[in-house]
From TrEMBL:
Similarity field: Belongs to the SPTSS family. SPTSSB subfamily.
Membrane topology (UniProt): Multi-pass membrane protein
Protein name: Serine palmitoyltransferase small subunit B
Pathway: Sphingolipid metabolism; Lipid metabolism; sphingolipid metabolism
PANTHER family (alphabetical): SERINE PALMITOYLTRANSFERASE SMALL SUBUNIT B
Role according to the record: Component of the serine palmitoyltransferase multisubunit enzyme (SPT) that catalyzes the initial and rate-limiting step in sphingolipid biosynthesis by condensing L-serine and activated acyl-CoA (most commonly palmitoyl-CoA) to form long-chain bases. The SPT complex is composed of SPTLC1, SPTLC2 or SPTLC3 and SPTSSA or SPTSSB. Within this complex, the heterodimer consisting of SPTLC1 and SPTLC2/SPTLC3 forms the catalytic core. Within the SPT complex, SPTSSB stimulates the catalytic activity and plays a role in substrate specificity.
Amino acid sequence: MDIKRVKDYIYWLYYQYLLITCSYVLEPWEQSMFHTITVTVFAMVVYTAYVFVPIHVRLAFEFFSQIFGGQPESTVSIVN
């Protein structure tokens, strides 16, 4: 891809974002506040998913492995 096509695509994505959120009708200071809040919320969601999702997946895996006949960790022998 050449640079112009990538640039046009990014502009198109930004235009779609403005249309979907209806933020194109806001004044410039309102747009700035709206974008700041949106980016902050998105960053918090990504951080929360990064920190807590692996823990919950591990706990769910342990829970279902106990239900479906997996050996508990205390009975597993350690081989050196």
